[in-house]
# Entry
Amino acid sequence: MTESSNRAEETPSLLLSKLNAITLEGPTKLILASQSPRRREILDMMGLRGRYTVQFSPLNEEALQEELAEKDLTPQEYTSILAQEKAKALAEALVGDDYSPDDTIYVLGSDTIVDYDVHILNKPQNETQAIEMLSQLSGNYHYVHTGVAIYKLDASKPEISSVTLADSFVETAKVKFATLSVADIKAYVNTGEPMDKAGAYGIQGIGGQMVEEMQGDFFTVMGLPMHSLSKCLAKLLS
# Structure
């Protein structure tokens, strides 16, 4: 057996062999700073069902979005900052909570945006805006960027300084929409599905019918890049 294969066995590259390290009762805890059912579904699919908790981040996301919109940021920088600030706000709010001094808490934040011609499409504010977004995407390519950030909270230190950024990354997928009829766009908006989704569509739902082609990780478009997150968590747990 070669030295490189020995290293591969000693340092798992995926979360698969590290799942038992994350439990609700053990010293290593994972908290998802999101109410997104899609992100919970992805974590469950990774084998983490019953091993993590969910808490809403206290971040004023709308105010931060307005602030970031005034800055000269790339779409990737924009979503990365949002993901980091979501996780950081919750991690700092947890400082001093009733954890054992031996506990290490990882707080996972994520943000997904649609990037059409370097123009960020967030969640539509109303049905008219949803129709406008889908009309823009119709027949065209666009990018979906998902930012992921994990903050580490050392429960043995009851200070804000115990919160540190453990890792962060951005994954991008390229998506091509079919040319959509006005009737199909309106019918989709009438389902209500687009209203809580960046770019006004959900690839894992009814909106998946509109996707003609995709390059990249399906789960990036869904809201949490599974493969990259698996590698990230495995690295933190090694």
